[in-house]
Amino acid sequence: MSTTTPVSSNPNAVSLSAEAVIAQLRSMQSQIGDMAPLSKEQRTLVKQRLRMQSKTVVEASINVIGVLDNVSQAIGQPLDDVRQLQDDAIRWEAAAEEARGFLNGIEGANLNRRQRLALIATQAYAIGSQLAKDPGKAVLLPHVEEVKRLKGVSRRKKAAQAPQSPPPAPAPMPSPGPVTSTAPKA
After folding, report:
1. Which of 30, 50, 73, 132 satisfies CB 3.0 to 4.6 Å to 140 for a cystine?
2. pLDDT tens sequence across 156-185
3. pLDDT-based confidence at residue 13 (cuts at 50, 70, 90)
4. Conformation bin of residue 59: beta by default, left when phi > 0, alpha when psi is -120 to 50
């Protein structure tokens, strides 16, 4: 596993802060007129509907509009408007793919940062633990002990969160069945 951080291939690239990226994303979002965030349920429903008609079926159906003006009038959509919507969908899909790649890059870079921080923290604790044994460096002792305590708490939380098996269900009581005595009633 490499511990080096990839460097941009462009030596003149400007390094933006996280806050600057957020500001630019919000600015772009305000400039896109028809953004429509969907709930998870809505997204699932729309995707299910889209799976029912392949892109080739949609394209062939759009061609029907161009054959006769009556079709365009019946659906209330001029062919040029439908073709523009189709073109917009293709272009925005490319934009969405680019945004997904951008997000993946940001998440990857942040995971690398967090990994570097964890390594530095581990090294600091290990070195601090060794130095704290020296009476001249006893000032480190409360800090090292706090880290040790927090590590113990973290382990206990993980153990407590482990799924516990449910208690065994009590054995069912035998139900009194129908009386099948053949003895005559008195």
Report:
1. 132
2. 876 677 666 655 555 555 555 555 555 555
3. confident
4. alpha
Task: Tell me the angle at which helices 55-67 and 79-132 cross, rounded to the nearest 10 degrees.
Answer: 160
Residue type, 94: A
CA 156, distance to chain mean position in Å, is: 27
The set of residues, in sequence order, having a beta carbon less than 8 Å from that of 106 and lying 6+ positions away, is 21
Cα(135)–Cα(12) distance, integer angstroms: 50
Distance CA 124, CA 130 (A): 10
